[in-house]
Design brief:
The protein is of the alpha+beta class. Helix content is 40%, strand content 10%. It has a three-stranded mixed β-sheet with strand order 1-2-3, covered by helices on one side. Helix 3 (71-82) packs parallel to helix 5 (126-139). The N and C termini lie far apart (94 Å).
Length: 184
């Protein structure tokens, strides 16, 4: 119990059993109230919320979570909908991807008005690719296109064939026993 209220009693209550029992019972209630208050505080922030708290945010912004979405995915979806308007720059998009923990790099071909997002297959998940697509559809101007490039894992093969030549031999030796040393 974190809140041991008996420590706050005056000295003349040290030997009073009833007061010790009351303080012990009230300390448990206070612990429960404090943990509930802390949970309510954390549920005010999207990145710190639990499953119950994120459902309130989802209801506010009109998101219906998929049955297989984990808590972090649900938090990222809410964050993407609640982001404040800022000037859209490549630096901002890089910062946004870093905040959402999406391992991509983004470059822009200004002459072609094309944004290129690159990622490695081993580092990115399908849900993160969906989040990238959503963000690019929302933030990029209408006259700008984008490409999402996923680099596949590289495999190296060698054409070395190893073989060896050896000999095998077997020798059998038969030695007759010296029976002259045995006495009958």
């Amino acid at each position: 119990m974190v809140n041991d209220l008996a420590n706050y009693l005056p000295d003349y209550y040290n030997d009073v059993y009833e007061m010790q029992a009351i303080m012990h019972a009230q300390g448990g209630v206070l612990d429960k109230a404090e943990s509930e208050q802390f949970r309510l505080l954390l549920n005010q922030f999207v990145t710190q919320t639990d499953a119950k708290g994120i459902s309130v945010f989802e209801d506010q912004v009109g998101i219906k979570p998929a049955p297989n979405d984990d808590l972090e995915t649900r938090q990222n979806k809410v964050l993407m909908r609640l982001l404040p308007p800022r000037p859209i720059t490549i630096g901002y998009l890089r910062e946004l991807f870093a905040t959402l923990k999406i391992p991509v790099t983004i470059t822009v071909e200004r002459a072609k008005r094309n944004a290129i997002v690159e990622a490695k297959n081993a580092e990115i998940e399908g849900k993160q690719i969906e989040n990238v697509r959503y963000l690019l559809n929302i933030y990029l101007p209408a006259n700008m296109s984008y490409e999402i490039r996923i680099a596949l894992n590289e495999a190296q093969t060698t054409n070395d064939i190893k073989f060896g030549v050896g000999t095998w031999s077997k020798a059998t030796v038969a030695v007759p026993a010296n029976t002259s040393q045995f006495i009958n």
